[in-house]
Structures are given as structure tokens and as C-alpha cells.
Amino acid sequence: MVLHPLLVRALAVMGVFMVSLGAAMAQSPAADAALRRLFEEERANDALFTADFLQQVPAAAVARLIADLRAGYGPFAAVEWTEGRGTIVLERGRVPVQITLDDGGRIAGLFFGPPQAVGAGLDDLAARLRSAAVGDLSILVVVDGETRLAEAAARPMAVGSAFKLVVLRAYEDAVAAGALARDGVVGLEAGDRSLPSGVLHLLPPGTPFTLESLAGLMIRISDNTATDALIRIVGRAALERLSPRNRPFLTTGELFRLAAAAADREAYGRGDEAARRAVLAALAAQPLPEAGTIGQRITWPEAEWFLSAEDICTLLGGLRAAPALRHTSEPFLAALGWPSLLYKGGSEPGVLNLSALGRSPAGRRVCAVITANGHGRQPDDTLAGLFADLLRVAGE
């Protein structure tokens, strides 16, 4: 069996864990040679792996991860071993590694841990982020209330599911005002149904949920149906007061319909607010597209949610006590070992947002946000690794 948390979500952001079939992990010249070939070959090579490995993870997926590592941390330099644990040494970083080989020297199991930049300050990390990102990039790092790094931090950028922080803010405001109760029970409505991510789209209308359950699902697993239910409950007007540049404030179902309908999407992108609302009203009668028909197109310039890095840090700061944001750290940030860390991100073709607010082991309160918008695939793994480095350096 081969397990690999990273390859579940765009190679699960900086770490592949693959358990081999009976082979023992060992330091050896053969392991060094296999790792060197893996990093120095420019193309995917099935011959490097066992058949069982390839049944679970294609060589092209591993090659993509390694290309992203090289892009963020430079070319391969060496492999170092300490008590049987390996470290890939790259020009500008170090990556924990474990490898297993079969009797023929083919890779049967592989683990890459979170990479760590070597000798990097915030300015150096910003330069690496700029080099790696496709298209435009915004960066913001605030430490103990002081801005330490800001590049295009006030610029509205497409942020994908990070917009759900606005929905959470509206929900928390309604709870604080007494208009909603966390334990209030509502039924899903047919119009709430959206496409994945999430699981609630599989449930029938009328299925009851507490409001707090919907909020938790929206944030922790980015459930789109839960999100659209909360948008219905808090009201579009409340969201547009919080985020006036996003008028009309889209539901996820509306975004999916726009993504599938090129003519409507283009009209939406060109139109003023009234024209956009008219497009959405016409689309409301259309069924949701099949999930497989969207997801590869670059559609964010015409239809998306736009927030600045400053907006997101403000949102996170105001949501520190929100129950839905507890225990939201991503696996690629777990190695930081921060006692408190709130995380939300978002992605779609051409778009990547990573946002976090936390307290470091040194006691520093850090907010960090990066957003990349371009017309090609973002190197998610590289950007995520560098984002983790931003947090680590800022928290020292």
C-alpha cells in the first residue's frame, strides 16, 4: 500500500508520505543514487519506481512535486544522513526524506517532509515567492501589530475559498447581535446545493443542521453547500456591507454556473452591478454543471471573490474567537509547532491564497497572507512551502 497525504490536495502541499511494500528504509549508495536521479532528471521516468508504487502514484505527479521543490529551493546538491534519516540538500533549502528500494534499486516508498529555507529572511522569501508565482502576487506579514513585509497588500485579488471568511464574519456578527443562535437548527434547501468541495451536496433538502455545524463545515472542509446555506441565512446584503467591492456577493453555486457558461461569464465580467445581478437572476433557473466540466478553465478575471491581503488579516484578527476557526491549521503548517494557528486558503485554476494568523513558540502574533493570480497553473507546493517559511521566520 502507498499512502501520500500530499498528493490528495495538489500533492497536499509540501510532503509526500508513501509506505513501501516490505522494503526496509536504509541509508545506502543506492538510495543516494536514486534520489540524485529523481532530482536531476527533467522528465518523469517510470523506470525509477516499482509497479506497486506507480499503481498508487504516477511518476508524473512525483516529477511535478520535485520540479516545484527545485523552483522554490534551487538545484540538488547532496543527500545527508543522520541516524538513518535523510535530508535532501538543495541550493537554498533542506527537505527531509525517507526512501525504500526494492532489490532491483527501484523506489518502492518515498517521503518528503516540509522543506525549510536556508539562511532566508523575509525579503529573500518574498523574492522567491515572486519568482515562483505565476502572474501577480500580493504578500503581507504583520508581526505584533507591525507590518514587516507588504507587497501589493492593499490590492484586491481573487482569493478562492478564502472569501468564506467574509461569510463567517457575517455569521459571527449575527450571533453577537442575537439575530442568530449557534445551536439554531435549519434545514438545507434545494437552492443551497452546490458542487464539491464538501459533503453536504450529497444530502437531501430538509436535512437539519445547527448553524454552528454549517459554519464549521464551511471553514474546516470548505463545504460549498454549507457556505451557500449560510449565505442564504445571513443574507447577501450583510455580506455586501462587509465587502462592498464584491457586489453582487456570489454564492459558490453561482460561481460554478458562471464558470460553465462562457457567454454569461463574459457578460458578468463586463457588466456593472445591475447587469451582473441580471445575469445571476437568469442563471438561477439553470441546473448546476457537472463537476467534471469545470475546474480547468481560467475564469477568475470575470467572476470571483476579490479581497486584499489587508482585508484578510483584518478578517482573521476579528475572528480569533470564532469556534469554526479552531484547529484549522493545514498539515503543511503542522511542523511549525505553533501553539495557536488559524488558517484559511483558497484555490482554483490560476488562483492560490494562503492566509494564517497565529502565535509562534516565541510568543509573537503573526498574520501572513499571500495571494497569486495568473493565467497558468500556480506552483501550489512551492508557494505553500515558502509560505510556511514566511511564518517560521516572522515568528522567530
**Alpha carbon gyration radius:** 22 Å
- What portion of the residues fall into strands of 2 or more residues? 15-25%
Percent of residues in helices: 25-40%
- Domain count: the total is 3
Number of helices: 14
In terms of per-residue confidence, which ranges show pLDDT below 50 for 5 or more consecutive residues? 1-24
Q: Which class best fits the helix and strand makeup? A: alpha+beta
Reading off the top of the CATH hierarchy, the class of the largest domain is best stated as Alpha Beta
Q: How far apart lie the N and C ends?
A: 39 Å
Catalytic activity: a beta-lactam + H2O = a substituted beta-amino acid
GO molecular function, one term: beta-lactamase activity
Domain Beta-lactamase class A catalytic: 145-241
InterPro entries: Beta-lactam/transpept-like, Beta-lactam_cat, Beta-lactam_class-A
How would you characterize the overall build of this protein?
By secondary structure, the protein is of the alpha+beta class. It has 3 domains: 5-117, no CATH class; 122-158 and 306-394, DD-peptidase/beta-lactamase superfamily (Beta-lactamase, 3-Layer(aba) Sandwich), CATH 3.40.710; 163-293, 3-Layer(aba) Sandwich (Beta-lactamase). It has 14 helices and 15 strands. Helix 3 crosses helix 14 (380-394), helix 5 packs across helix 7 (224-234) and helix 6 packs across helix 7 (224-234). The longest helix has 15 residues, at 59-73. The model is unreliable at 1-24 (pLDDT under 50).
